[in-house]
Write a structure and sequence with these properties.
It is built from 10 helices and 18 strands. The longest helix is centred in the first third of the chain and has 16 residues. Helix 2 crosses helix 6. By secondary structure, the chain is α+β, with helices and mostly antiparallel strands. This is JmjC domain-containing protein.
């Protein structure tokens, strides 16, 4: 059966390379360039690294909110606003609530002190997040650039290039990032608070149920304090992961039935990145992110995007992703996944799936298959 080799692949990748627990390697200090290349970049394997940013002035200076405000007081920054804390995520369609759309945040450009206040005063129905995936740390937040290293020498040497972009993320516990992937090698440093990642390797692409959704944007009314959701014109479809790994209790059974490949397959890798730690997130890995703030109510992180190599791994991934999702939807083959009657044939209808062949290219072009991408992180 066609689905069996693909399901076997998920387990073999873990048996041979990634490990069979939900943990990833934790290095007590930065690796050498050769170790990083051989043990993590080449096998496309994540790791957590301690004691790599202890020398950064940011690790102490950014604990002071007055320091951030004074340093960035003249800066205009991008504030992302949503009614849920989930931007670049799926939301009920504004004119057909029984279906979904891909919703992006309202973006306002404000002086940093005002924008930070909006983050700190966020409510569950109006969540502010400071981020912009356009090398914002070296542009909007350039006054802070001297507080962090411009790159990680061990990563730069191993990858053979300097970072393509460096981004700053300032948020709170109300912000959450839906599952997505990036076409970058990502060195993700947490300066304050914690980030909680769920990770799945590129080989698990079918478990993400990537489909195309019409793009929409939130609009925030200063007069009413309410959001509306407007579809983009002309219509533009965005390929996006359909799975929410944390469904509400009343929706959990329904979600498990809709997405059995995710919920009944191998468990995702889990990692909490604490202040002062770095996550190496390899290119094309799917990741979902939550965060816990520090005592002020802030989580601050800086991520360095290095260009990925479009090599044979990329070709393998494109081939795997091109296989029709319906190949895995045989209700008679419960086996490893134990799906049996949980399958809903309408979920497995290939007409409901996105055209997989162009997903990687289109996502790389518009950065929706990010980050944090515009995604929160």
């Amino acid at each position: 059966m066609a689905e069996e080799p693909i399901q076997n692949l998920w387990q073999e990748v873990r048996d041979l390379s990634l490990g069979t627990t939900t943990r990833i390697d934790h290095l007590p200090s930065p690796p050498t360039p050769l170790q990083f290349l051989r043990e993590y970049v080449s096998p496309n394997k994540p790791c957590l690294i301690s004691n790599a940013v202890n020398h950064w002035p940011a690790t102490t200076l950014w604990q002071s909110t007055p320091y951030l405000i004074n340093t960035l007081s003249p800066s205009i920054v991008s504030l992302h606003l949503t009614p849920t804390g989930r931007a670049d995520a799926l939301s009920p369609h504004p004119t057909s609530p029984s279906s979904l759309c891909f919703a992006s945040a309202e973006v306002q450009h404000l002086p940093f002190p005002d924008a930070l206040t909006r983050v700190l005063e966020s409510e569950p129905d109006c969540v502010g997040y400071l981020q912009q995936q356009n090398d914002c740390f070296r542009s909007e937040y350039g006054s802070l650039s001297q507080d962090c290293d411009p790159d990680f020498p061990w990563a730069t040497e191993a990858l053979g290039c300097l970072p393509e972009a460096v981004n700053l993320w300032i948020g709170n516990d109300l912000s959450e990032t839906s599952f997505h992937k990036d076409h970058y090698e990502n060195i993700y440093a947490v300066v304050s608070g914690e980030k909680h990642f769920l990770l799945l390797p590129p080989t698990d692409v079918h478990r993400m149920y990537i489909r195309e959704y019409p793009a929409a944007e939130y609009r925030y009314s200063q007069d009413t304090g309410e959001f509306s959701l407007e579809l983009e014109e002309p219509v533009r479809n965005v390929p996006w992961c359909s799975v929410n790994p944390y469904p509400s209790p009343e929706l959990k059974e329904k979600e498990m039935t809709k997405f059995p490949l995710y919920f009944n397959g191998p468990r995702p890798f889990e990692v909490t990145v604490k202040a002062g730690e770095i996550l190496y997130l390899p290119s094309m890995w799917f990741h979902h992110v939550k965060q816990s703030p520090d005592g002020r109510g802030l989580t601050i992180a800086v991520n360095y995007w290095y260009d990925m190599r479009f090599d044979i791994k990329y070709a393998y991934f494109n081939f795997l992703q091109s296989l029709p999702h319906s190949m895995l939807c045989n209700p008679a083959s419960s086996g490893y996944l134990g799906m049996e009657s949980q399958y809903n044939s309408s979920i497995c209808n290939s007409e409901d799936e996105s055209s997989m062949g162009d997903i990687t290219a289109s996502a790389n072009d518009n950065l929706y298959d990010d980050p944090d991408g515009a995604v929160l992180k």
